[in-house]
Design goal:
With 182 residues, the protein is α+β, with helices and mostly antiparallel strands. Helix content is 46%, strand content 20%. The chain starts with a helix and ends with a strand. The chain is built from seven helices and five strands; from the N terminus they run αββαααββαααβ. A hairpin with a 2-residue loop joins β3 and β4. It has two domains: 76 residues, no CATH class; 74 residues, no CATH class. The strands form two sheets. A three-stranded antiparallel beta sheet has the order 4-3-5. It has a two-stranded antiparallel ribbon with strand order 1-2. α2 runs parallel beside α4, α5 runs antiparallel to α6 and α6 runs antiparallel to α7. It comes from Aquibium carbonis. It holds the Pfam family DUF982. This is DUF982 domain-containing protein.
């Protein structure tokens, strides 16, 4: 039997409204939440929607616990006004905490990359730093962020060099307008 992390099952369902069917239904796992976010979302995609998609991706890849996807999905549903009354949200969780299935070796960047966002200036010195940053921040240009996240994960998996991941991260940060120095 799969453990909770691998299957992405929520500890409690998120009840959402389906306006077309005029009924509420339970979303019980990360894969189901991702499918709704991608294919059945009733409103324009927002920052909360994008954060929920990224959270689901991180959970489905095994980097984060299912509670992260549940919370992000519920927040996006609340913003879209489809969260059913009485749905309990988990307490705020530590978004920086990494829960990985298989430990991966970090790879340093040849030079530090400095980014600046609403949190402040952050120095990114390794592939793992870049991955953690990309998973936990919302950039204005989503496609470049997702491409960079794929590149840094590939570097952690050993399929591309750290220098390639750094270059993708710098390009994405520049495109998003958060790059300070590279």
């Amino acid at each position: 039997m799969q453990n909770v992390l691998e299957s992405g099952w929520f500890d409690a369902p998120v009840k959402v409204m389906d306006a077309a069917a005029a009924r509420a239904y339970d979303v019980t796992n990360t894969r189901q939440a991702a499918e709704i976010l991608l294919h059945r979302w009733p409103n324009e995609w927002s920052g909360s929607h994008r954060a929920a998609r990224l959270a689901c991706l991180a959970v489905l890849k095994g980097f984060k616990p299912p509670v992260l996807a549940r919370r992000a999905f519920a927040e996006a549903a609340r913003e879209a006004d489809i969260l059913a009354e009485g749905t309990a949200l988990p307490e705020i969780i530590d978004m920086k905490k990494d829960v990985t299935k298989v430990p991966t070796e970090d790879k340093p960047f040849e030079r530090a990359v400095t980014v600046s966002d609403s949190v402040g200036k952050i120095e990114i010195v390794s592939v793992r730093d870049a991955r953690d940053y990309l998973q936990n921040v919302t950039w204005p240009n989503g496609a470049s962020q997702e491409d960079a996240l794929n590149a840094v994960q590939a570097a952690l998996d050993g399929t591309v060099p750290a220098s390639d991941a750094c270059a993708r991260f710098v390009d994405a940060a520049r495109q998003a307008g958060v790059l300070v120095s590279d």
